[in-house]
Amino acid sequence: MSLFSSLNAASQGLDAQSYAIGIAGKNLSNINNASYSKETVVFSNDGSVNTVGGPVDLGVSTSVVQESDPLLNAQVASENSTTSSFSTQQQFLEEAQTALGENLSNTSASSSTSSTGVGSSGLSSQIDNFFNAVQSLAASPGDATKSQVVLAQASVLAETFQQTNSNLAQVRGDLNTEIQSSVADANSQLQKIASLNQQIAQFEAGNPGSALDLRDQRQAAIEQLANDVPITTTAGPNGSVQVSMKDGSGNPVALVSGSTVTGPLTFSGSTLSGGASATALQISSGSIYGALNVRDGELSQIQSSIDAVANQIVTSVNAAYSATGGSFFDPAGTTAGTIAVSANLAANPPVAGVGAAGDNSVALAVAAVANTAYSTGSGDAITGTIGGYYDAAVSNLGESVSNMNNLVDSQTAVQNLAQTQRSNVSGVSMNEEMGNLMKYENAFQANARVFSVINTMISSLVNDMGVGT
User: Fold this and answer.
1) 56 membership: H or E segment, kind and range
2) pTM, entire model
3) How far apart are CA 230 and CA 219, in angstroms?
4) Spatial separation of the C-alpha atoms in residues 180 and 321, rounded to whole Å
């Protein structure tokens, strides 16, 4: 092998080790970047020439491969989608519970809220306060002050119903906003993925698999999209990926094909659609699913239950008070949002009875409403007593919060496991990269010494030839 060939080989070695040092430094700089896949330098022979003594190595070349496992990437995206669904449900179930203004007793040390009983604040206490005031009036039927207390407690009860209804309506509005925000984010990620597909295809023309940073960016966008909706990805031509969701029959509907978003996601209020023909899509995880699950599940149930309690109180109290010839509550207001004390009570405060002095039959009849067992099978708005029905409804919500807290904890552990498994393959190890850095630096220094020696030899040879002439 000639000195000039050796010098060329040493020069290539310097370039190769310098490049490898740069890759190790890039890996270390991204050690905390969850969207980054470790890059590994691959050294290979640059070729050889035949000489009298046989083939001679001309040096070394480098390439870089990305340590990325598509199956692990898909698993992480799927677990992200499930976690996002549970976290969204947890957030809004807790918001709904706060909107009620009720304190729930704990059932176990592992849950912060649970379902065994309703505390001393909120609508529950106002229902009790109203019926206790009526019972007090029945005990002193001629006491005008206690009559005014009944009126005041009835007004507070109606206002608490209305405020609770308003609070829960705000939660519903927040859920709808969350859904629209997630739809907008999903469409943004779809556009980003399509754009990155195009950039990757252009960058990798003639050099497949070389757009490593762009591929990392696309995977990050895919995982962000999975936070919103459940998706599947399949490899397409020219390094692209196709993104799909399922329709109601489980068939794939392409959302991104190559550099094109086939059709943006739209939400009608109950149905998510997308794809080229605006197909109704199946959603089983992601933040949109989580928000819909709460909105049309637990939130609707508690709103319906509170409306039913308001209805039962209005109709039953008015029936008991009808002996006076008037209504206690406005008969037109039979929901939590419309319940109101009858206007005639302002001029004619509640009475305990309509007979002789000391008659308390009306007050007793109204007070008895609190302990009456009702049945929807008999045409009533609720089943059970008013207090028992309401407590059960609120406790059911508390149980849902507790269960969701447990699900979030469990799913977070599963998600962390999936991310750890991927990190074991594509994550950056500081120890490994520091070792590589030292190895490449030592190799660089060795090549530099070889280069220097050969360069000195060539210089001496040239100088000697010059002296000889």
Assistant:
1) strand 54-57
2) 0.83
3) 15
4) 47
